[in-house]
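Practice problem. Given the sequence and the SMILES for S-adenosylmethionine, write out the predicted structure.
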Amino acid sequence: MTNIKEGDKAIIMHDSGNSYLIDIELRTFHSQYGAFQLKDIIGKSYGKRYKTTTGNEFLVLVPDFRDLLSKSLKRGPQIIHPKDVGMITTFCGIGKTTKVLEAGCGSAFLTSHLGNIAKSVVSWEKNEKHYKIGTENIRRMGLNNVEVKAGDIKEEQGTDFDVIILDMPLPQDTIKKITKNLKVGGRIAVYSPCIEQSTAAINMLDSKGFINIVFRECLIRDWENEKCIRPKTAMLGHTGFLVFARYIKKENKKDIE
Ligand SMILES: C[S@@+](CC[C@H](N)C(=O)[O-])C[C@H]1O[C@@H](n2cnc3c(N)ncnc32)[C@H](O)[C@@H]1O
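Answer key:
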């Protein structure tokens, strides 16, 4: 492993699990657990422990994608929760050959995950303020395969996308316009916080040549191992509903029905 140099990034992790993403510079690192000189770690490898002025210890780690995303993203509109990102990427079969079309970019949390695993991503954002946040976040994540476009996704002219993902109001209007941009056999995911949006999306998908329409929600329950092993009392409440479907074209659908 290469040694740490000035300008690198590092995760400084306390035994409590609390961690900080920092740029390695010639300065003192301060925290509630005490301070230490960052020059002491320059030239050393990641994975070592360092003592602070108050006797606490920190482990210095290489930041991974999750560290960078959770600690460096500028927050704007509501992001898609990681559990739902996992559902979207898995059920749409997104991988290194997939061309994705997406809207709205918003805070680019989902967009960043897509950029991390897909071949290419075109993400539309019609709100000027959100566009600035989204493009800045994609820059911070260093994702060169992501193009953020300012405007309405309905203006997209590109075709042969493998996957379309929508996280925006009135998805049915967009589905109506952009189905032509999806290749036959391609997939769509529609994320909606409200059931009315999901049902409107389902009806439109049904009329536009989509099959395998699946409507689901993902609930996640954390467990604890304290006095005994049991599920935690509090659970994450509602995030959103997900609709998945596959595009086969209206003509082909008639043959199947
Ligand atoms: C909830 S945010 C998306 C958050 C994003 N998925 C994330 O994880 O960070 C919804 C965004 O869709 C944008 N939007 C709404 N309608 C749109 C349209 N027709 N074309 C492009 N963007 C749109 C809104 O401006 C807003 O920023």
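Check your answer against the key. The pocket of S-adenosylmethionine is lined by residues 77-80, 103-104, 106-110, 124-127, 130, 152-153, 167-169, 174 (CB under 6 Å).
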